[in-house]
Structure of Response regulator:
Amino acid sequence: MGKTIMVIDDSASLRQVVGIALKGAGYDVVEAVDGSDALHKLPAQKINLVVCDVNMPVMDGITFVKEIKQLPNYKFTPVIMLTTESQESKKKEGQAAGARAWVTKPFKPDVLLGAIQKLVLP
């Protein structure tokens, strides 16, 4: 059974690039356009890890992380923030919310995949 990774980003092209990298590495991919969309899609399948943008309309990434950590079934689901934000303050906010890793855009697929392999739940 393959692992399923949810990719949350308001940019369709970024979701596509991340999706291609993940599918190439053997993962199944579920896409969401923002945090709110992602929360609605969560119950439909088991998600082993989430890759999430920080700056998005409707619900931003940090709010999403706080929300997912409130859900009993997803409390331990690792979240990797993938973002143009490199400020320490944002990183600390993300970590405080429960994000497990921070990958900056433009990203190198091998860096992202390395972080995923370390964190993905069995």
Summary: The mean pLDDT is 94.
